[in-house]
Structures are given as structure tokens and as C-alpha cells.
Amino acid sequence: MGELRRITFHFGIELEVRYLSEVPAAGDLVTHQRALWVVSRVTDDTVGIAVICELPRSNGDHVETAAA
Fold first, then answer.
1. Virtual CA dihedral for 31, 34, 37, 41, nearest 10 degrees?
2. DSSP strand pairing (35-45 vs 48-54)
3. Whole-prediction pTM value?
């Protein structure tokens, strides 16, 4: 396990800071409030690492949820 890095996740208008050893990549699935989100973009600049997430496109009104 590597060194932990501070990563800010953007879920719509909500932010969540996590400390992880690996930075997620575009296309990875992450959870937020029991919902699965898709990483759409990762930026790394002087402010730090930001992971921009969006809800996956779904068929109809079905929204995937993660186990607790």
C-alpha cells in the first residue's frame, strides 16, 4: 500500500474529501450516498487532485445503488 493522497471528489454540487493510496481513473465507479457514480475526469494541479463524478446514464428511471 502506497502513501495516502488527499483527493476531493465532486458529486454534482457536493464535495467529499477522501484519503486514498491510488487515484481513480476516468470510467471507474465510486460510491456516494449509496449511489454508484462514474468518474468522468481527474485533474491534478496546484490546488490538489480533483475527481469529477457524474451519475451514470440509466435505462428508464432505474438508478443503481451500492450495498451499504
1. -40
2. antiparallel
3. 0.79
Residue 64's nearest CA partner among 24, 31, 39, 26 is 31
- Burial class of residue 9, CB neighbours in 10 A (0-12, 13-18, 19+): buried
Q: pLDDT per residue over 11-57, tens digit each?
A: 999 999 999 999 999 999 999 999 999 999 999 988 899 999 999 88
C-alpha cell at 14: 457536493
What pLDDT was estimated at residue 59? 46
What length does the chain have?
68
Task: To the nearest 10°, report the CA torsion of 14, 16, 62, 60.
Answer: 50
- Give all strands (DSSP E) within 1-68, no chain letters: 5-11, 14-20, 29-32, 35-45, 48-54
